[in-house]
Sequence to fold (228 residues):
Amino acid sequence: MAQKFERNQEATVYIGNLDDRVTDELIWELMVQAGPVANVHLPKDRVTQSTQGYGFCEFQSAEDADYAVKTMNMVKLFGKPMRINKSSTDKRMQDVGAKLFIGNLDPQVDDEKLLHDTFGVFGQMVRPPKIARDSVSGNSKGFAFVSYATFEAADAAIEAMNGQYFANKPVAVNFAFKKDARGERHGSAAERLLAAQAQKNMPGEQQQQQQQQYQQYQQYQPPPPQQW
Fold:
């Protein structure tokens, strides 16, 4: 009987938004810079054997996994920013509807990592920021979206960043419009109630992590104009 392989969840990171040219070997070579790697697994299609845009990397220690999340999240491979977080946390992540629209973006803001580094101080994101791009040129259309795990983080981002200069232009930050909702924005009382109920069922460790990230915004000072 084959021995069942059990992955150490606390020492494993989830890697998403991968280009289809990324291989197990490339991920291994990249992740070993954060610490000794025990295993890399990129799930493949049974028929085509092509990767499915995500994978897992197990380190020999949880500390190395944490370091990889801090240093390699949003690093680009083949032009696409990787989404890296702890595998054990990613499965518990819920999209509560705390989605923000960031408008009037300066053309210089053409890197999702810059958005992640700036807006990430307000709280945990459920997915990487997304800049809307022209389908032909790939250039920014001047707006982007950021989705948080809590409405507290989204509220904090709006309060601190709406009207602030980001690169050389003041950005407009507000809740994004819902799809097929005829002008209704996210952040409604109903969404907040559902999110509060989900928060009660969330493991205590994750609650503490989100509260700590939310508190960071109180010390955050937006950069002065023209200095990005």
Remarks:
- The longest strand covers residues 140-148.
- The helical segments are 24-31, 62-72, 87-90, 112-119, 151-161, 189-200, 204-216.
- The chain is about 30% helix and 20% strand.
- Residues 1-5, 213-228 have pLDDT under 50 and may be disordered.
